[in-house]
Write a structure and sequence with these properties.
The complex is a heterodimer. By secondary structure, chain A is of the alpha/beta class. Helices cover about 25% and strands about 30% of the residues of chain A. Chain B has 2 domains: about 160 residues, 3-Layer(aba) Sandwich (Rossmann fold), CATH 3.40.50; about 120 residues, Rossmann fold (3-Layer(aba) Sandwich), CATH 3.40.50. Classes of the chains: A alpha/beta, B alpha/beta. β13 of chain A pairs parallel with β16 of chain B. The structure holds flavin-adenine dinucleotide (2 copies).
């Protein structure tokens, strides 16, 4: 079966973002961009499925600016087979992303689509679930473990109280959580090989999707800053401060 | 602007997250209904009736909703959505699981993890791990919202809402529940606790978390962890506090052997008071801590326990 993996280009997780002085957004000029960390986990899982003979082909998709092709190349270097770049300008909301992915799923007919549980920039945590709903497919979100057979997937999920296992019919959508696997680093030969793998270029219009945002960002501001407090010298002093000064114990 | 709050509950009891979501819903300015979907959930529905500001409690009691799986929840919510201008769920793993499906089917954007209601169409929400706060305006029309419960106080008791049974929707037949491994603990839940003590990689092993357990028992605290401690297998996944774990805002958060990475801070920096124990005085956690103790935790934590005992805890 074919596996589809949407990957998003986001600000690198090590970068501390700065809000622009005019409150119009965050400053993304010259900051390091990388693949969303959850999407690396998705690519790894898909490539492992291929290595185990459970997947026939791994197709990665990114929706974004021209530079998102770098993110696709990273996935190809990890072992994915080919890419689709849907070029868009400006921000694309999760619902529009899901509509584009729906059209791609209808054309590519994957048995499984693996997405990240959230993108670390916008932290929406919606795209996979929206895609599943639009296709009328089942979903296994926040995946901790996957067992795949021909017609179903058994997915262990990280939930608030612990772990939950569900069985879903295929085709289905899975979203990945942190502990599903540890993504590999691409080797130099594989990075070279990835340069020859095909990337198809499309636009949102090719799929008939209007990407105009529906939510209007009025402003983006800094959260209230916390001041560093004081250092105490002993554990006994800590208890004393928490009790008598802060009054929280 | 009628709002429907989808309750988070255990069938036998309502969770605190529900009462907080009711507060957010009330701020939209219209009548508030609560949906309790579950199996054998009469007791939870009874608790929901008492929340002040709630007009009606809808009960969908069926084996289909026993585990609130996303596909049957989507069908149920779509069968009710016509009557409401807004649907709100707490941003728990349940709410995050089914709500985007409903938004997609209604063809509206989901407004994720709101921290504040500024007006009927205007909300504040965190982005970039809470390093920026966005004020957004949604189009008028139906809204699908998840609520970051640390942003809202729980609605009081003292209400007496009407009770109304609603029929189950057709079973989509796409998914089934297999099993669950829930962490058992007599301690308060992380997201509801007034005091939390969390351990990081510095704890070195799962066994060493007993040092924190002993403090937690004295202070009626919950125990949390950094991602590094969970990844290392010291404690289960549901202990993780942070951008991609649980977001907490207790009265007191004590970080032990945690460096204070942005992803961790994202989950706890709205705590009222933060205390940190770390042997590295340069650790970023000290930049947000009200009280910092630079010390080896294996010495400092037992001393902390002893000092608590002396102080009568
Ligand atoms: C300052 C700012 C504010 C924004 N505000 C909003 C807002 O309020 N509401 C809103 O809906 N959007 C908003 N956006 C747009 C947002 O950044 C994303 O482009 C889009 O919303 C996708 O959401 P997400 O990445 O958080 O999705 P998530 O649901 O968190 O992403 C999960 C997964 O979906 C897949 N995926 C998501 N996007 C893509 C993509 N482009 N290509 C391929 N795969 C993808 C990936 O597998 C990813 O791991 C905002 C953007 C910025 C920079
Ligand atoms: C996509 C993504 C999502 C993430 N989500 C989260 C998240 O939700 N939550 C989260 O926590 N992290 C998250 N992280 C990980 C985060 O970046 C950090 O790696 C993690 O928080 C570090 O955990 P730590 O502080 O326990 O470990 P470290 O950074 O290794 O710090 C250990 C600390 O313990 C101290 N120490 C060691 N020994 C002792 C001793 N004997 N006495 C006293 N102090 C001692 C050290 O000085 C050090 O400061 C995420 C990362 C990514 C990429």
């Amino acid at each position: 079966m074919k596996v589809l993996v949407p990957v998003k280009r986001v600000i690198d997780y090590n970068v501390k973002v700065r809000v622009k002085a005019d409150s119009s957004g965050v400053d993304l000029a010259n900051v390091k961009m990388s693949m969303n960390p959850f999407d690396e986990i998705s690519v790894e899982e898909a490539v492992r499925l291929k290595e185990k003979g459970k997947a026939s082909e791994v197709v990665v998709v990114s929706i974004g600016p021209a530079q998102a092709s770098e993110t696709i190349r990273t996935a190809l270097a990890m072992g994915a087979d080919r890419g689709i770049l849907v070029k868009t300008e400006g921000e694309v909301e999760p619902l529009a992303v899901a509509k584009i992915l729906k059209a791609i799923c209808e054309a590519e007919k994957p048995g499984l689509a693996i997405l990240g549980k959230q993108a670390i920039d916008d932290d929406s945590n919606q795209t996979g679930q929206m895609l599943a709903a639009l296709l009328g497919w089942a979903q296994g979100t926040f995946a901790h473990n996957l067992e795949l057979d021909e017609t179903s997937a058994t997915i262990e999920r990280e939930i608030d109280g612990g772990l939950q296992t569900v069985k879903v019919k295929l085709p289905a959508v899975m979203t990945t959580d942190l502990r599903l696997n540890e993504p590999r680093y691409a080797s130099l030969p594989n990075i070279m090989k990835a340069k020859k793998k095909p990337i198809d270029e499309k636009t949102a219009a090719d799929y008939g999707v209007d990407t105009t945002p529906r939510l209007k960002v009025l402003k983006v501001t800094e959260p209230p800053k916390r001041q560093a407090g004081i250092k105490v010298k002993t554990a006994a002093e800590l208890v004393e401060k928490l009790k008598n000064e802060a009054g929280v114990i | 602007m009628a709002a429907l709050v989808i309750a988070e509950h255990t069938n036998t009891a309502l969770k605190d997250a529900t009462a907080k979501t009711v507060t957010a819903a009330s701020q939209l300015g219209g009548p508030v209904h609560v949906l309790v979907a579950g199996q054998g959930c009469a007791a939870a529905a009874e608790e929901a009736r008492k929340l002040s500001g709630v007009e009606t409690v809808l009960v969908a009691d069926s084996p289909l909703y026993a585990k609130m799986l996303a596909e049957p929840m989507e069908a149920l919510l779509l069968s009710l959505a016509d009557k409401y201008d807004a649907l709100l769920a707490p941003a728990t793993t349940n709410g995050k699981n089914y709500m985007p499906r409903v938004a997609a089917k209604l063809d509206v954007p989901q407004i994720s993890e709101i921290l504040a209601v500024e007006g009927p169409n205007t909300f504040r929400r965190p982005i970039y791990a809470g390093n920026a706060i966005q004020t957004i305006e949604a189009p008028s029309g139906k809204k699908v919202i998840t609520v970051r419960t640390t942003g809202f106080k729980a609605a009081d008791g003292g209400g007496s809402a009407a009770l109304q049974q609603v029929p189950a929707a057709a079973d989509p037949g796409l998914s089934s529940f297999v099993n669950e491994e829930l962490s058992k603990s007599d301690r308060p839940e992380l997201t509801a606790a007034k005091i939390i003590i969390s351990g990081g990689r510095g704890m070195q092993s799962g066994d060493n978390f007993h040092l924190l357990d002993r403090i937690a028992d004295k202070l009626h605290a919950a125990v949390g962890a950094s991602r590094a401690a969970v990844d290392a297998g010291f404690v289960p996944n549901d202990y993780q506090v942070g951008q991609t774990g649980k977001v907490v805002a207790p009265e007191l958060y004590i970080a032990v052997g945690i460096s204070g990475a942005i992803q961790h801070l994202a989950g706890m920096k709205d705590s009222k008071v933060i205390a940190a124990i770390n042997k590295d005085e340069e650790a970023p956690i000290f930049q947000v801590a009200d009280y910092g103790l630079v010390a080896d935790l294996f010495k400092a934590v037992p001393e902390f326990e002893e000092a608590l005992t002396k102080a009568g805890y």
